[in-house]
Amino acid sequence: MGKTTTKASSRLGTLNLYNQSISVPTLVNFELTTDLTIGANNKGTGVIDKKGLVFNKTYKFLAKLAGSKKGIESTKIVWVIKYMSPSTSRNKFITLKAITVGPEFTLELKDKYKDMAGCEIEISCHMQARPKKSVSNKYFVHNRFRYFDGKKVLTQAQQRMSKPWLIDQAQSSLCGMACLYYILIQRSSSLYKKIAVELHRTGIYELSNGYSIRPKSSMYDIKPDDSDYKNMKMAEVDWIVLASTRSSESNLRYDGIETGSFDQLGAVNWMGMLTRMCKEVASYSSTKSHDLGLLDVGKTIINKRNFSIDKLFEMDKKYKSGKKIIMMIQPKMISNNKGDRDINSIHWIVYEGGLQLFDGDGRNVLTDSLHIGRVKFNIFTWGEEPNNSPRDLPRRGISVTNFSTNYYGYIEVY
C-alpha cells in the first residue's frame, strides 16, 4: 500500500508541473504598431523615400506571446534599445533598457533621445523569466532635419571648411550669420563641421561654453522642395546653420523662411547681437563694436573731414594686425541696389584688406581723406569666388565712390 501511494503522488506532481509550464506565455515576436514616416535617404541624391522614426512622436511596440491571456497581461518583458552614436558612443553601443508588465512597450521620441537621430537602432525584447530567448528588429531614426540629405549636408560642410567664402545667405537676410561663420571657420573649421553636422542630425548644438543653438521647431518640417525655401536659393548646409543660429536668437520667432517684411525683420542681425555672438558662437576672446554715430557725422559737417574714411584707415590698420573686421554697410556700396538707410538696407561684409585710395582724377593718394574720391578694398560677401590670392582667402575687390554715405560701423574681433 505504501509503495502504491508514493507512485500516485509522483504522477500527480509531474502532472502539476506540466500544467504550470504550458500556462506560462512564450515570446514569439514583436511588431511596431505605429506608422513610420518618409524622409531623406541620405545617399547624396536628395531623394525622400526612406522610412523611419521621427521625433515628437510616440511609437508603440507589441510583443506577440503564446499562452493564456491572464499570463500575458502579468508577464514582465524586458525591452532593450541599442545604437551607435556618431558623436558620443566612440564606436561602442549605447544601451537603454526598460521593463514592462504586459506585452506593450511605448517609446516617446523626445529631446532626451536626440542622440538617436540619424542612427539605426536595434530593439530587442525577452521575457524576464527567460533572458536567453529574445527577438529583435532594427529601425532607422530620421535626422531632425529629416527631409535634408545628410550626405549632401556633410559634403557642403567639408567644402566650406577649406573654402569658407562658399557660405552664401543668397536671398535671405542672414548676411550677419554668414560673416559669423566665415570667421568661425578661419578660427576652427572642425568646430564649424561639428555644428553643421550635429544641427542637421539632432536639431540642437550646445557649445562647450554653454551657448545653445536651438531653432524654432517648425524648421524641422521644412522640405528642400518647398517653394518658400527654394525662393531663398540657399544651399542646404547654409540654410541649416545660418537660419538655425539666427532662429535661436530671435525674439520674433524667426523660422528660417522669409516671405515678407516681418520675416526679414526677424532675420536682421543687429550690431550688439552679432558682436556678442562672435565670442559666444565663433569663440573669439575679444570683440568690440564701432558705430558711425551722430558725433562723427557732426564732425564731418563742421570740419569738412570725412570721418568715415578715417574709420576705414582704422579698420585697415587693425586688419593688418591680425584682427577680423566685420563691416555694416548699405548693400548699394557693392551693387546698384537702391534703398535708403533703413533696416532692410543693412548688410554685413567681412573686410579683407587690399585698401587703395584714389583722388577725383584717379591718382593714388595715401591718407588725405579730404581729397579721396574713390576707395578700393577686398571683402567677403554672398558666397562669391575670390580673386587669386596667396592666402587663398576671399579677395573680391570693390571700388566705392560713395563710401561715407553707405558705411555704418564695424566690429573688430580677435
How does this model look, in words?
By secondary structure, the protein is of the alpha+beta class. The chain has 12 helices and 19 strands. It has helices at 2-23, 69-74, 150-162, 175-187, 189-202, 227-232, 236-248, 261-267, 271-280, 294-303, 307-320, 403-406, and strands at 26-32, 37-40, 48-52, 58-66, 76-83, 94-101, 104-108, 120-127, 134-140, 205-206, 212-213, 287-291, 324-329, 347-351, 356-358, 364-365, 374-380, 396-400, 407-413. The strands form 5 sheets. Strands 12, 13, 14, 15, 16, 17, 18 and 19 form an 8-stranded antiparallel beta sheet that branches. Strands 6-5-8-9 form a 4-stranded antiparallel beta sheet, with no helix packed on it. Helix 3 runs antiparallel to helix 5 (189-202), helix 4 crosses helix 5 and helix 5 packs across helix 7 (236-248). It is elongated, with a radius of gyration of 31 Å. The model is unreliable at 1-22, 336-343 and 388-394 (pLDDT under 50).
